Amino acid sequence: MNKKIEDFKHVAIIQTAFLGDVALSLYLAQAIKVIYPSVELTFVTTPSASPLVACSTAVNNIITYDKRGLQTGLRGIKFVANLLKDKKVDCIVSPHRSFRTTILSYFSKPQFSISFNKSAVSVLYSKRINYLPHLHEIERNLSLLTGFSGLKFQSTPTVDLEFEDDDISFIDYKLYGLGVKEGEKIVLIAPGSIWNTKRWEEEYHFRLCSMLKEANCKVILIGSKEDWELCSRIAINSGVINFAGETTIPQTLVLMKKASLTITNDSSPTHFAGLVGCPVITIYGPTSPVFGFAPRGEKSRIIELNGLKCRPCTVHGSHKCPVNTHECMTHINPKTVFDSAKEILGI
User: Are 143 and 149 in contact (CB under 8 A)?
Assistant: First the structure.
């Protein structure tokens, strides 16, 4: 079945995975709007990711799919499928490869649907594109567009984001309260992760914060409410600022736009920073950038411990090191990260 993207009036993207996955799917949304500006574009995502998607100027409508809460199970799938049918969505593009997403797409009864050949029950999609593990996730998602007739692989677009005035004012007020001066280097550090093995050592974060503070950088710890205790301990010991749990995702993006550098593990802040062009240092332990989730940007850096036979041990991370050493993280010292930060910051 050969179809042009212009054959459809209303396209939906389904991405209900982790926040970082949603961030990387926004490049796909942007590319669709660049190719076909008049298309109605709906994005199906989770409650936690909806505020992130709302920042994208390419997306016309958001359908929030609470797959682990109010809309769990088959009843929830049918409910969201009916929402898509009510909106007269006639084409679905799904970078998410889960069984639930495939069934949701099928029940929505679009005229045409595209996903990867590695998606669960991929036979239910109209078109299946080869999943290429060597590509970055952004390019991998963009490769789905080759499923449309006459559409060649697109170069990576810049994601157009728009923020509420209140969110911009909130961050300006917070920074003013901290006495941030014109030209002062703001360094954001996101130490948290839902996966314990992805977390760099708390003691190392404390030492890194101290080094950056001594270098006259304004260091701010960021994260969710769940990261507050961890960030609070680091802040108390190093004398830096703790914003964990105090900013929404859009406010975090505004803050990153004003920052000189973000330092994080292999998690969503890597991709948030990429969206707004903030240089990032990503520390990899049990996972690896070869999976396609490396930071983008000329100034961004990857820090990892090569030569360990046990890594990478997982795609997403785990709660416990399988060999009980956690060497992949404990052997990355703060000086290594600080030296990379100095290079990026020019200090």
Answer: no
